[in-house]
Amino acid sequence: MTTAPLVELENISKAFGGVQAVDNVSLTVSPGEVIGLLGHNGAGKSTLIRILSGAHTADSGRILVGGTEATITSPKDAKAIGIETIYQTLALADNLDAVSNLFLGRERRRFGIFNDRRTMVRETTEICAQINPRFTNLQTPVRNLSGGQRQTIAIARAVYFNARVLIMDEPTAALGPGETAMVKDLIQQLKSKGVGIILISHDIEDVFDLADRMVVMAGGRVVGRLNTHEATREQVLSLIIMGAETKPNPAAARP
Amino acid sequence: MTNLTGSAEHGGIAALRRVLLLNKAVLFALILAVVLSVASPYFLLQQNIVALLEQIVVMTIVALGYTLVLATGEIDLSVGGMIALIGFVIAKLMTTYGVPVPVAIIAGMALGAACGALNATMVSRFGLPSFIVTLATGALFTGILYILSNLVPVSNLPPGFLAISRTKIGPIPLPVILLVPVVIGFYVVATKTVFGQHVIALGGNPEAVRVAGINITRLRLKVFMIAGACYAVAAVLLTARSASAQIGAGSNLLLIVITAVVIGGTPLLGGKANMIGTLFGCLILGMISNGMNLLGVNANYQIAVQGLLILFALVLDIESTKLLLRLDKRSMLRRRQAGAL
Amino acid sequence: MVFTRTCFRAFTFSVALMASGLAHAEDVRTIKIAFSVDVLDDTQNAATQAMHKRVDELNASRKDVKIEFDVYDAQGSVDKQISDVQTALIKQPNVLIFSAVDSVGSLPAMQAAKDAGVPILDRRPTSPVSDLTTVAFYSSDENRYSKATTEWIKGYLKAHPDSVLKIGAIYGAPAQTAQLLRIDAIKALAAEMPDRIQFVAEGYGNWLTATAQNLSQDWLLAYPDINYIATANDIMALGVSNTLISAGRKDILVSGYDLTPDGVQRVKDGTQSLTIGTSIADNGKTIDVALGIVDGSFKDKTYYLDPVYAVDAGNVDDFLAGKIK
Ligand SMILES: Nc1ncnc2c1ncn2[C@@H]1O[C@H](COP(=O)(O)OP(=O)(O)OP(=O)(O)O)[C@@H](O)[C@H]1O
Ligand SMILES: [Mg+2]
């Protein structure tokens, strides 16, 4: 990449009790770049990106944003920098509707303390129409919605607030083929606008379609870094499954 | 917050059904009022209505604050101890230390907020369940009360203080009038403000609230402090009405208030704050006790009837929620079909 | 502060006793009384003061005995009470006055006294009375309270031959059965003279002012002819009296129990008609019973504190004066 990185994660580690969930991981994202983050269940992908989004704090390592060190100790810090996240769990309040969830924590206000409900309904309608035109139940508690509709809200939330860096943890897990295509289209759009994207997915085809580079994790470490146009599916699968390539490539597997 | 237009398309009856189901406490209160006015010639007397309202003021003010606490998914078992302690401190300040009435009241409210802050801090700082924390602080407050008071109530309160409960505007006692802005205030907070929205979200999914960048510690602190201040207002009114600060004051409130709030449609597990429901929940409990007193129901039966009615209200709550969900699903389905056409 | 004062008193007594003991070492019997009190709250402190006073009087009037009276404050802790009694037993008291912190938890303390052969005057007897207890001392007795109540009502009816009492009765808590007697005695009387006494309403006030207040407020509407509200204690009588004040009613009798300072004050002020109970000041009699146990002159298993006062407008001034004296 020729442009300077948007975000650099340097030597990040994080343990939960005895489990070293993330072990000395480095990762960079540049503008307009899609990074595919791959790995088995429990590889540490979510933990890594939750550190970037402020949901966890790292035990060690540092985060650079635009070349200078940033302290991200809460989700608020990350959002202020322009890092938006679609969590694997979606992080929706089930008892609230799409509008309230989309604006949760960043409500449009009137007189400083009141919800500007009308504006929020309007904006939600607009953004959701872009992402998933068939989703119109914007004012029903989200517990009554389908998985795809819930995912739409989480995506809309990340897109609406003009992310500079967008983290997507399994964004298409609950989506049907049509909606998945729509999300892939959306990723292309955002990419062309210069948004840096970290995409976590178990669907290797999606990653090959969308990602510029791939980073494979296993046991909390990075076991492979590949450029998509040079990589083969076998290579990637073997990295995911065995933590190493069938034909060892020490340079790539270096942690 | 909930969309009514979906059902309105299917006619006014559906909409009415929805409104009543959403506010079943209102419905239940209406039924009870009709039954009681038929059963007792005294029930609808202006004098009785006024007495009834006067009797529920303290409970309602506590319950409104409590609704916020329950909405966040927390519980507060320290309410009884706090009310008795605050009532005693206020009374003692006025009688022994000659503190002017308004200053004593403000001090009481500050004490209530401080007690609430203690509860919230213990929950947030040490990650303890509020159930345990408030059980302990409740005992602490009661213990402090016993130490300070030697179990002796405080009487001979200044006339200016007693006037709070004895003043009437027309036929209506001052506390009843005071209740109106308090109810409106809590209704607005719960339904129209960003704070209220966050409180409800917290009860729905704390993790979602956290990753949304909302400071949960501060949010919880505010909720418990507001509740504490409410208890203090209740303590003021209770002390003025009792014309003394009693050691056992408010010890019966915990169960009554939780019942009223839940009947009012705020679930025990949080995620909703129905202030109007809470008001009507209190009205229902007030009517049950007032009605049975008027009807001369045998005291032992009263206890059983009270239990039965509360059970009934809770079942009504569960059943109507299920029904509401079914209606939601049905109207959504219909809409999907309509969209497909 | 209370504790220090007590200690100081005990100290002065013992000094005085020691001094007199030296003079008449031959013919004076020393009687050691230990008192293990659960907690020196206001009530217990007043009772203890009354006992100290009685010890003073007896030491001054009786030349044949000198009484040493030691008070141990368990401060509400079962543990401390057990240690207290252990300490007390080292001094080999002639009798132990005992007020349990907890009826079960404090049993080891009583057992220790029994094992040491020290008789126990139990100021907080359980029901049924423990085997360990030598004399069960009751500072209130429901039967006597009931009798005082019915006597007072009979007196009132005699003085008001035209009046028919229409009673609303407020019990305490349903689970505590002993106090039910207070109201049930009036009921029994009503059965005897149905033309003079009628029950119109009954309810539980749960010992709370506010609950009794709501209940009586409702009754005033539902039973306009009610003219006497009998409550099971002064705390609830306060609620009724509040209702009557705000309704501007002065024609309704209110009674309570326990002779609380507030209750007596309300009788004096005319906002309560009657309060029944024993006087804390009479608790000095504990010492007489204790002496009786020691010298064998008190042979009963139980003692009920006398007298039971029925304080009303007619005698409240005397009562207050008597207490001051
Ligand atoms: N909050 C937590 N507390 C304790 N352990 C955790 C926590 N979150 C994750 N872990 C552990 O850390 C390791 C990495 O988990 P993580 O969720 O990051 O994996 P993942 O790569 O996202 O897996 P998946 O593909 O299943 O989403 C796992 O062993 C997991 O059990
Ligand atoms: Mg994950």
From TrEMBL, chain A:
SUPFAM superfamilies from the UniProt entry: P-loop containing nucleoside triphosphate hydrolases
ABC transporter domain ranges (all copies): 7-244
Single GO MF annotation: ATP binding
The entry's keywords: ATP-binding, Nucleotide-binding, Repeat, Sugar transport, Transport
Domain of life according to the entry: Bacteria
Keyword rRNA-binding: no
Protein name listed in UniProt: ATP-binding cassette domain-containing protein
Lineage: Bacteria, Pseudomonadati, Pseudomonadota, Alphaproteobacteria, Hyphomicrobiales
UniProtKB/TrEMBL annotation, chain B:
KW Plastid (keyword) present: no
InterPro entries: ABC_transp_permease
Membrane topology: Multi-pass membrane protein
UniProt cross-references to Pfam families, sorted A to Z: BPD_transp_2
Transmembrane segments annotated in the record for this chain: 21-43, 49-70, 77-95, 101-119, 131-152, 172-190, 223-243, 249-269, 276-297, 303-325
Localization (cell): Cell membrane
Keywords: Cell membrane, Membrane, Transmembrane, Transmembrane helix
Keyword Cell cycle: no
Name of the protein described by the UniProt record: ABC transporter permease
Organism: Kaistia terrae
